[in-house]
Design brief:
The complex is a heterodimer.
Chain A: E1 11-20, E2 23-33, E3 38-42, H1 49-56, E4 64-69, E5 72-73, H2 79-84, E6 87-90, H3 102-107, E7 113-114, E8 117-118, H4 120-133, H5 149-162, E9 167-171, H6 179-194, E10 198-202, H7 206-212, E11 215-220, E12 223-228, H8 235-243, H9 248-253, E13 270-277, E14 281-288, E15 293-297, H10 304-312, E16 319-324, E17 327-329, H11 334-339, E18 342-345, H12 349-352, H13 360-372, H14 380-394, H15 410-422, E19 428-432, H16 440-455, E20 459-463, H17 467-473, E21 476-481, E22 484-490, H18 497-506
Chain B: H1 34-53, H2 60-69, H3 71-85, H4 93-109, H5 114-137, H6 143-161, E1 166-167, H7 171-176, E2 180-183, E3 186-188, H8 190-208, H9 210-220, H10 222-227, H11 232-258, E4 260-261, H12 269-279, H13 291-311, H14 317-341
Antiparallel strand pairs in B: 1-4, 2-3
The chains are: A alpha/beta, B mainly alpha.
Chain lengths: 511, 342
């Protein structure tokens, strides 16, 4: 399976340096990609993975360095130029246009033409072929927006196949896929590799890296750490190289050490009684006590996010009653939720969270300002204090309050988002996929932070696709399936992933 | 290492999950057609109301005039549709249309033949459109500002060329306005035919060329379109060229309609064109809409005018009031559609 080490690289990048205002994203980085290999690019958030990819795909210009593709020196003027050179990319955040059909998104720019005009019949047929190559049996005529994020991601990959790519870049392609979908994707990746395509693969799931990669390049803080084969780099060492420090933080959470006992004798901070919304989630009951982490487990699309949106008022419930500290309340909008000290950190940080054009400082202060009302400006001194405190506490990198949030890596944007809500001193914190697309180091930090916040008396609702993570953190777990809360269990050492998977599979009947 | 576990195993999930049937498929028609359908309903209602209230309202003559008298606006609205589909706006079209009438009138007065004057007038519109496109794309100036500048520029040039109204006697232009009788009161003019031809060409361009699909893709998300490797720059410049060209051509049709070149022609016409596009169901945010909808939008505007003329006692300003009300309703309708899609 391994490629001979002496093949000529299809891509050779040397001395790549890129700076943004306030951030040196890449510093003299070298990277090479051989034909017919799967090459994993590893690093923490902010290590420069995305920047390196964007340099290779023509999105960013490079300040210095050389990019050689197929033996030819290249200066890409934009993504179109990179595609012409045979480099195709699937980005972490799905970059398709959801106003158009699936077929169009796959074929845009490569539509099949007859007599100069698009032959829609042939184009749709071609799109269907590309989709089926990924075992994706959806109607090419359907609107992209009618499909789940996972399906959209696969559509994006289908699109990348349309160009006869010599280099395929997959930036976190699996972060919204379930294991079946991942397996299918890997089959496709292996097929392409065997056809001689060079594949650059970025993922935060170490399992996946070791399952598919032929070689691994590690970046840290914008610099190159080294290039390795998976055989010579055991996991622990890989993580060590990525985070550049010992694994104390990780081991601290390893296993389920002392789980604080939650006092459930008093009044819950929030009680939902028969709350539901038609077409969104069936009526459910849920109590959340101060100091308790309630995990929501379930597959993608099982109603985890929908449940959370009802809790803090983003959507109206059309049945049931919500009580906060024993008093019945109507949460009509997120502002009302905020007034009751309930905050929500969205899973789609790009569209519902971070404001990319503002600085880190401005993004953090937003929540605080919203709570105070727009007429009462947060004093600059207080804002600076709060911002500095959270940048420090959460380890936001770069630790520069004036950096533009949009230039930060995904994990650091997530931390900024968390800081925004923590600054409002909430009593109930709802976290929807706070660790998705985040590397191990940052993930452990965020998990630890959540555990600490609960220990200090904050109620937390924790949503994650990673069952392990939910089990490790939660005191109580609500299991969802098909937009239905099917079970609720108190977490203990007897509760394992298998128990929860069984519950999800059986719909709670056998439990 | 526990943190790098894969996501929840779906191994016990009985049904295959990849069919994307996340939202149950509804038997109703594509949502994208809903706004246009609204326009059709409004148009039908107006025809029914007009037909029942006034004699001869539904006669061939009145209906034919609806197309003939609005042929220039149809052409301008078609150009505007391209721009709005990318999420832009073009405020310069009214002034560019006036400039086109002035240039052609001035050239005719100075003895230029029609085969020079007509292309020159259209080219002037295309050039201004190109300049706007470059401003919008290369210098990243908001389309609102760039086209506002172009509007003042074109309007000012009108006064330089033709301070007074210049009558047009050129036979080619006059011929554009000849009525060809089709029987039963129905008639068509070359202007009307040109407008229809523009609509057909625009429709084919938008739906059957890569350029047209890129227009929609940019409206759906410019950043995504760029990352998909689509020629965003070229397309963005080109939509303004198309809008300018349409305005130039519209100017010729208007010159045929009014038999003169005048610097105060088409003041506020850009707003009529925008109104027609929006009433025709195109989202101002871009990415969704149809050129045929814009034609319907123009016809709705024309019908309002016709109804008010038939009413006789109403001031023509009522046209504006009704258009305003209708516009509000349509914008709110669009908003609701967008919100429900989320």
């Amino acid at each position: 399976m391994m490629t001979e080490p002496h093949t000529t690289p299809i891509v050779e990048m040397t001395g790549i340096t890129i700076s943004f205002p306030g951030v040196k994203a890449l510093d003299d980085v070298a990277f090479r990609l051989l034909p017919g290999e799967v090459h994993a690019l590893m690093g923490e958030n902010g290590a420069g993975k995305s920047t390196l990819i964007k340099a290779l795909t023509g999105v960013y210009g490079i300040d210095s360095g050389r990019i050689v593709v197929g033996g030819v020196d290249q200066v890409f003027s934009g993504p179109a130029a990179a595609q012409d050179a045979g480099i195709s990319t699937v980005y972490q955040e799905v970059n398709l246009t959801d106003n158009l059909s699936v077929a169009e998104n796959v074929m845009l720019g490569h539509e099949i033409r007859r007599f100069g005009l698009i032959d829609w019949h042939a184009t749709r047929k071609a799109a269907r072929t590309y989709l089926q190559a990924l075992n994706l049996d959806i109607d090419p005529k359907s609107s992209l927006s009618s499909h789940s994020l996972a399906v959209q991601q696969l559509v994006a990959i289908s699109r990348a196949m349309v160009v006869d790519a010599r280099v395929l870049i997959l930036d976190e392609p699996t972060s919204s896929l379930d294991s079946d979908e991942v397996a299918r994707l890997f089959d496709v990746i292996r097929t392409l590799r065997d056809q001689g395509v060079a594949i650059l693969f970025v993922s935060h799931f170490l399992e996946q890296i070791y399952a598919i990669s032929d070689r691994i390049t590690v970046l840290r803080n914008g610099t190159l750490v080294g290039e390795y084969t998976p055989e010579e780099l055991p996991r622990v060492e890989l993580v060590g190289k990525m985070i550049g420090r010992t694994l104390e933080v990780l081991s601290e959470l390893e296993g389920r050490s002392e789980r604080a006992v939650v006092d459930r004798s008093g009044t819950p901070f929030m009680q939902a009684v028969g709350v539901g919304r038609r077409g969104s989630i069936e009526p459910f009951d849920l109590d959340i006590y101060p100091g308790e982490i309630v995990g929501l487990a379930g597959l993608l699309g099982s109603g985890r996010t929908e449940l959370a949106r009802l809790l803090y008022g983003a959507d109206h419930a059309d049945s049931g009653e919500t009580l906060v500290s024993g008093e019945s309340v109507k949460l009509r909008n997120p502002r009302a939720g905020l007034a009751k000290s309930i905050v929500f950190s969205s899973e789609s940080r790009k569209t519902e969270g971070i404001i990319g054009d503002l600085t880190v400082r401005e993004n953090i202060v937003l929540g605080l300002q919203a709570e105070r009302g727009w007429m009462r400006r947060v004093p600059k001194k207080k804002a600076d204090e709060v911002v500095a405190q959270y940048i420090e506490a959460l380890g936001v990198r770069p630790a520069n309050p004036d950096a533009i949030a949009g230039n930060l890596s995904g994990g650091n944007q997530q931390k900024v988002l968390l800081a925004r809500w923590l600054a409002t001193a909430p009593k109930l914190l709802i976290l929807d996929e706070p660790t998705r697309g985040i590397d191990v180091g940052a993930k452990a930090e965020i998990q630890k932070l959540v555990a600490d916040l609960a220990a200090q008396g904050m109620a937390v609702v924790f949503i994650s696709a990673e069952l392990e993570e939910v089990l490790r953190l939660s005191h109580r777990i609500a299991v969802l399936r098909d937009r239905h809360k099917v079970a609720e269990l108190i977490n203990s050492d007897d509760v394992t992933t298998d128990v929860v998977v069984d519950l999800i599979a059986s719909g709670g009947t056998s439990a | 290492m526990a943190t790098d576990e894969m996501t929840v195993k779906a191994r016990k999930q009985p049904e295959p999950k990849l069919t994307g049937e996340v939202h149950r498929s509804r038997p109703t028609l594509d949502r994208r057609y809903l706004p246009v359908l609204g326009t059709v309903v409004v148009l039908a209602l107006m025809l029914i109301i007009g037909g029942s209230r006034y004699e001869n309202f539904l006669s061939g003559r009145v209906m034919a005039n609806l197309l003939i008298n609005n042929s220039f606006l149809i052409v301008v609205a078609v150009g505007m549709t391209f721009v709005i589909l990318t999420g832009g706006i073009d405020l310069s079209v009214g002034a560019v249309l006036a400039l086109s009438t002035c240039i052609s009138a001035w050239m005719f007065v100075h003895g230029w033949p029609a085969y020079v004057a007509i292309p020159a007038a259209i080219l002037a519109g295309a050039l201004i459109g190109w300049a706007v496109g470059v401003m919008v794309h290369v210098f990243e100036i908001q389309p609102f500002i760039a086209t506002l500048a172009a509007m003042f520029l074109a309007r000012g040039l009108c006064y330089v060329i033709a301070p007074e109204s210049i009558p047009i006697t050129d036979p080619t232009i006059i011929k554009l306005g000849t009525r060809w009788d089709l029987g039963g009161g129905w008639a068509i003019t070359p202007s009307g035919l040109i407008a229809l031809a523009v609509v057909v060409v625009a429709f084919v361009t938008l739906h059957y060329t890569r350029f047209g699909r890129t227009v929609y893709a940019i409206g759906g998300g410019e950043q995504s379109a760029r990352l998909m490797g689509l020629p965003v720059a070229r397309t963005k410049v080109l939509v303004y060229v198309i809008s300018g060209t349409c305005a130039g051509l519209g100017g010729l049709l208007f010159a045929a309609f009014s038999s003169s070149g005048y610097s105060l022609t088409g003041v506020g016409m850009e707003l009529d064109a925008i109104a027609a596009v929006v009433i025709g169901g195109t989202l101002l945010t871009g990415g969704s809409g149809f050129v045929l909808g814009s034609v319907l939008g123009v016809l709705v505007l024309g019908l309002i005018q016709t109804i008010i003329t038939f009413e006789g006692t109403l001031s023509s300003w009522w046209t504006k009031i009704v258009i305003g009300a209708l516009l509000l309703v349509f914008v709110i309708l669009q908003r609701l559609l967008v919100v429900r899609r989320r």
